[in-house]
Structure formats: C-alpha cells, structure tokens
Specification:
single chain; 755 residues; alpha+beta; Aldehyde Oxidoreductase, domain 4
Length: 755
C-alpha cells in the first residue's frame, strides 16, 4: 500500500476543530497553585532590595518566592543550552526589563496577580547597552563571566571568558578575499539591519510542575522535551529517570518554545512548596521571554567585468539580548551561509553573537537565515542594477550548482537551487511585459532566493510497536505544533509496513514513554526522526517476519500480523517492537577557517517573487502577488507541505512590513496585539506556492524539512520590488509606509523632517 506522497488531512485535525485536543493551558491538578511573576523595571542594575511583605500578607497568597529562596534549593540555579548564564529568578543583578525577580503563588490566579502589584524592588541602575555593534566594545558588560554549558556536540568549543559581550565569534575563510577584491572590476558594499521582533504564538508560554515521591513531572508547551528532562535533572543533581516531561499539542512554537523557558521556574517552585505549580504567561509577557535576533549585516562584494562574483566579505552582528539561549548556534550555523547561494571562490565571514540589555533572542523560524537573505539578496539586486544587468540574469550566472563546494567547504548535494530559482522566474513571467502603474501608483517586481544548512549533528530515536491484533503504534519525541509531523510519521510507518497511515497511532512527547529526540527545530524533524521512524518500522517488520518463521509459517509470504501472533503464541498475545536511532555524520568546522567537508546532512532552498504597488503619496505598499518555491525533496504529504510554505511566507510578511518591538530605555512600548502589528487576513496577498520536483537521497523516501524554506526570500523580494517600482532602496526592516514615504521624499529632495 503506497502511503508516502498521499494528500491526507492531519491525523489530529478532528480533535483540534472540535476543541478536544489537549493543551497545557487546559490542565488543572488537585492542590495546584498559580504563579504570577514580578518583573524588573530597569534594563540593567544591581538588586538592592525586594519588599514582598505586603504581597505575602494579602489573603489567599500561599507564598512569595525570590531568587534567594531558589538558591537554597539549587545552589547554582543557572540554565541555558549554550551558556549556563540565566538564573531561574534574578540573583544580585537584572539584565533586561521584564526579567523575573519574584513569584507570587496562590490558589486563585487573580489573587496572585493582585499580590504581584504589591511587590517593590530597589535597584542601583547600571549603564545599559542595546545596540549589537556598540556592545562589541566592552565598556558596558552584561555578564562578568561566561560559563559554557557543554551540552551539545556542536557547541563544545565554546569557552568561558570575561571582559566581553561576545558570546561567540565564528569565522569562515575561503580563498584570498583581499587579493580578489583588489583585482575585481567593481567593489560594492552596503549595510543592512533587521529589527527585534516576536514569535507571538497564540498559545502563550505555559508550564506545570507536579512533585511526586522522589520524582517530578512537568507538563509544558515546549519543543524540546528531551532537553528539558536533561536540564532539570542537571539542576537538581538527579538522574534523568526522576524527571518526566509531557508535552501535548502546541498552539504554535516557531522556535520560541525551545530549550528551557518556564520549566526550571515551575520545577523549583513546586519542589519548594511541595504542590503542583502552574505559570501561564499573558500575551504581553511573551515580549519579555524570547525574541528574534536584531542584526547588523555589513556586506561587500567584488565583481568581475563578466558579471561573475569573485569575492564576498560579510560581517554579521547578532543582537542576542541579556541571555545567550541558543544564539551562539544561530551565529555559527546560519553565519556560515552569509555569502548566499552563490559560487564564490573567495569568501570571508565574521559572525558575532552579542549580549545586550534587551529581551533574550533565540531560534525563530529560519534560525537566522531570513535576516541573512534579507541582506545578501538586497545587496545582490543592487549590484545587478548598478552594473546594468538584469537581476535574474545576474543571479543565474552566479548560482551555486550541485557538485560544487559551498563557501563552507562542503560540496553541494541534492539542493535544487536552480530548479527553485527557475520556478519563481517562470511563474513571475519575468520576460513578459509588465504594467508599471500610474504616476502616483507605481508597480514593480522583485525576486530573491536563499539557502540554509540544517543543524548537525543531532540525534533522533524512534519506536514502532506492532501489537498482537496487528495494530501499530509509533513513539516519537517530535512535538507536533501544527506542522503535521505525527501524520508524516504515520505515512512513513504505513509505507514500510503496508498499512494505511490512518491505522497508525502516534504517541508523542512523554519522556517516560517516548525515546530521545534532540528537539523540534530547524526543519530537522522530518529528516532525522523520519529516518529513525523508517528504520524502526523496518526493524519491526524484520522481527515480525522472524516471528513468522518461529511459528512455522513458510518464508516468502506476507501474513497478516494478527495471524502470525496467533500462530506463534496460540492466542492474541505478544508484541513486536522495532527501534532505531538516526544521527548523520558530521565534521566540525576548522576553528580558524570555518571549513568542513561535511558541515550539514542536507540543504534547504527557498525562493520568492513579488509584484507590488506603491502609493507614492502615502508610502503604502500593496503586495499584488507573492510567488514561492521551495525544495523539500519528495514531499511525504504534499498538501501539508504547500500549507507550510504559506504559513512561513505569511509569518515573514509580518516581519517584513509591520512587526517590530519598540524600545524606550529598554522598556518595550508596544507589548500588545493592539500596537504590535501582525498580518491580518486582509493583509495576505494572492499566493502561488510550489514544491519543486527534487529528491533528498539520504532522506526518508527522498524527503527533507520544509517548515522554514518559505521564509527565506520574502523580505528582500519585497524590497527589490519597491526599488524596481520607485527607485528607492530600504536598508532596514520593517518596511513600513512611513519608511517608504521618507525614502521617497528624500529622493525628491523634500525630506519629511524638514517640514
């Protein structure tokens, strides 16, 4: 029975649309206390005192807890996937506005919320730094000492040090950039910036901890339950089997719910009071948990007279905020793709993860690549226009092809860069006549393409259980947060075992039941867990055939599983359990050059083309059409794959045109959906999405991840189209109507600031 390639609805869709799907927000436990967080009002300062007496005296308050209380339970209460730099509650110092300082616990969440207003704190304010480039200077230190976590294989090289705000500096060198620049016929350079913005999942962060007899169970909205288990066990000095982490469905994650968020806090609180504790953030509080990196990207290219790129130099500064989270991995894993999907013999990349006094930044759909593509595809378009070359022709001349080495030293394989690019160009009708609009409503077109390497090395483990009646259950640590992973794994198992995907039950994310998975992030899951699931299903199939031989059934015939079990055991009894782990090979980059001949198991490719109409009297940009193409190999579930492209593109549309966190003295001034503008249904343009014909030969049935690829080209394609329409170039996101109008008026010699 052919399953892979079927268009089927997600298996959980009925439970979700009927309101029966489980979410952590729904959970109520006997004796449960609700926690509300008292937060810092200063961006950087020493804590001189915390007055909790009035809050503790409020009727209904069970207890008020500070960092000092937690330190009695956990002497070193610091966590983090890259550095152990983040305290469970602030100790001695606060490093950003909104940092948790104390927690009120009460049986009634409204009482807890009222009590938080009665807490006061005094701080000795310290100078703060917000800009990622300024923070390169050690004048203002966010952390005195950096302590590497040493958890992940790809971050083992991180070193402890002091006197710096640089959490990680990554360097890539290929060829001789300076000499190539000197020989180039044209040298062109620009600086681009992106803003700090938010994941803004419609299910805010929520976690519950329940203490037991020498055990702790955590129910949480989290994308990496295996890591949570490991990190909580480390904090308490326990073996892993004393910690159980259960994750139901997520109402969106986008990278924000990775690693430790609220889990360490609820775990510590519950162990102190010996009762279940739940903390659920408000929509506003999400602005103080985790964000997308703001960036500054300086890029310079050398071009020969034939239009070939001969050299490219990139300096990328990532604004990591007050705590590192997984930012060092972003700076390294995305940083090495900063030169773009181009065949350039001489490349220099310097990528820096920087501490500042902002809300911490971490993984967000694309893992830093959308910020890079925004810069290098805007820059590439500007080069083409300056040289008088069609932007499509210029890109096509320079695109990297399979079989050629990427700037990292890894040879490109199974990356459909040309196919994706050609698909966007063809569906844009690039060579056909184009309506340029009227005098005040001008129209333009833009195109862009991006490349991403998947995170490596990472491990996934899967279990497939065939019961005595022939029914099949798959166990996975992947968190289904809307991407359809449960359905994809059911299709893979069904393909191997010859049964319908609808007959496979998928059990997910309970660390007492499901095996290890590094995390649901970076478009890794379909490839890594998909391969593990395929291997586990094959293992189960092999064991079932062996059982048939034991039962005396002739070889070479596929018997129904129920018949095999009954023949072997004389009744409906027994199980066959297939297991497998999958971890691709990997070679870490050389410390000095960043070179590796095996830096990633697969490449993601995404391209976009847009047509825009710009009102030159107001600066309003109207997206007339958005064309997307991605390479996900052979899609497991084509309908879900196309939906993933739409979701990614719409999310990036918001980051392009409207979304930005506004700071005033470190305080976010638009921390609400009334002021932080995400796209509404009326903002979504007509979209044309395509999964190009391709195959990832090392992937499960030729497939690989797709969740991020639709984000890559959206921002630069829009900026390129605005430039095509009006002649003005926007160098910083978001591209608001005000930004466009200011650029238009400056171009006309009538700056808005002069009026």
């Amino acid at each position: 029975m052919n399953q892979v390639g079927r268009n089927i609805p997600r298996l959980e869709v009925h439970a979700k649309v009927t309101g029966r799907a489980d979410y952590t927000h729904h959970l109520r436990l006997p004796g449960m206390l609700y926690g509300k967080v008292f937060r810092s009002t200063v961006p950087h300062g020493l804590i001189r005192s915390i007055d909790t007496q009035a809050a503790q005296a409020l009727p209904g308050v069970h207890r008020v807890i500070t960092g000092a209380d937690i330190q009695k339970l956990i002497p070193e209460p610091y966590y983090g996937p890259a550095f152990h730099d983040q305290p469970i509650l602030a100790l001695k110092k606060v490093r950003h506005v909104g940092e948790p300082v104390a927690v009120v616990l009460a049986s009634d969440p409204h009482v807890a919320e009222q009590a938080v207003q009665l807490i006061s704190a005094e701080y000795e304010e310290l100078p703060a730094v917000y800009d990622e480039v300024e923070a390169m200077q050690p004048d203002i230190l966010v952390h005195d000492v950096l302590r590497p976590a040493g958890t992940f294989a790809d971050l083992k090289h991180l070193k402890g040090r002091g006197g710096t705000n640089v959490a990680l500096d990554y360097h890539l060198r290929r060829g001789d950039v300076d000499a190539a620049m000197a020989r180039a016929d044209h040298v062109i350079e620009h600086t681009f910036k992106t803003q700090q913005c938010l994941h803004l999942a419609f299910e805010p962060f929520v976690s519950v901890a329940e203490p037991g007899d020498q055990r702790l169970t955590i129910y949480t909205a989290n994308q990496s339950p295996s890591f949570v288990r490991i990190e909580i066990a480390r904090l308490f000095g326990w073996p892993e089997n004393r910690v159980r982490v259960k994750v139901p469905y997520l109402g969106g994650g986008f990278g924000g719910k990775l690693y430790i968020k609220l889990e360490a806090l609820v775990a510590a609180l519950s162990m102190i009071v010996r009762r279940p504790v739940k903390i659920a953030l408000t929509m506003e509080e999400q602005f103080y948990m985790i964000t997308k990196h703001a960036t500054t990207f300086r890029i310079k290219s050398g071009v020969g007279k034939d239009g070939r790129l001969v050299a490219r130099k990139c300096e990328v500064y990532w604004n990591g905020g007050a705590y590192a989270d997984i930012g060092p991995r972003v700076a390294q894993k995305s940083g090495f793709t900063a030169a773009g999907p181009y065949d350039i013999d001489n490349v220099s990349v310097d990528s820096y993860e920087i501490y500042t006094n902002r809300t911490p930044a971490g993984a967000l759909r694309g893992f830093g690549v959308p910020q890079l593509v925004w810069a290098y595809e805007s820059h590439t378009d500007l080069i083409a226009r300056q040289l008088g070359i069609d932007p499509v022709d210029f890109r096509r001349k320079n695109l990297l092809r399979n079989g050629r080495p990427h700037a990292s030293g890894t040879v490109l394989q199974d990356a459909a860069i040309t196919e994706v690019f050609d698909s966007v160009v063809a569906r844009m009708g690039w060579d056909k006549p184009f309506d340029r609009g009227s005098e005040t409503l001008r129209r333009g077109r833009g195109i862009a393409i991006g490349l991403k390497a998947v995170i490596s090395p990472t491990t996934s483990v899967a279990i497939v259980n065939i019961s005595a009646d022939g029914s099949t259950t798959a166990y996975t640590g992947t968190v289904d947060m809307g991407q359809g992973s449960d359905t994809a794994y059911a299709l893979i198992v069904g393909e191997v075992l010859g049964i319908a995907a609808e007959e496979v039950r998928v059990i997910h994310s309970d660390t007492d039941v499901t095996p290890y998975d590094m995390g649901t992030l970076g478009s890794r899951s379909l490839y890594h867990m998909g391969n593990a699931m395929r291997l586990a299903a094959e293992d189960a199939r092999t064991k079932l055939r062996a059982l048939a031989v034991e039962a005396g059934l002739p070889e070479g015939t596929n018997y129904p599983p129920a018949e095999v079990f009954k023949k072997r055991y004389g009744m409906q009894a027994g199980n066959v359990i297939g297991t497998a782990s999958f971890v691709p090979s990997y070679k870490p980059p050389a410390p000095q050059t960043g070179q590796s001949d095996n830096v990633t198991p697969f490449w993601m490719v995404g391209g976009a083309g847009v047509e825009v109409e710009v009102d030159t009297e107001t600066g309003k940009v109207h997206i007339l059409r958005l064309v997307n193409a991605v390479d996900c190999g052979k899609p497991i579930n084509p309908g879900v794959a196309r939906a993933q492209i739409s979701g990614a593109a719409i999310m990036q549309l918001g980051f392009t045109l409207s979304e930005a966190m506004h700071l005033d003295g470190g305080q976010v001034t638009n921390a609400s959906l009334a002021d932080y503008k995400i796209p509404g249904i009326g903002d979504i343009p007509p979209m044309d999405n395509e999964v190009v014909a391709a195959e990832q030969h090392s992937g499960p049935f030729g497939a690989k991840g797709i969740g991020e690829s639709g984000t890559f080209g959206v921002s630069p394609a829009i900026a390129n189209a605005i430039h095509d329409a009006t002649g003005v170039r926007i160098m910083e996101l978001p591209i608001t109507a005000e930004a466009v109008l200011r650029a238009l008026r400056a171009q006309a010699g009538r700056p808005l600031d002069d009026e």
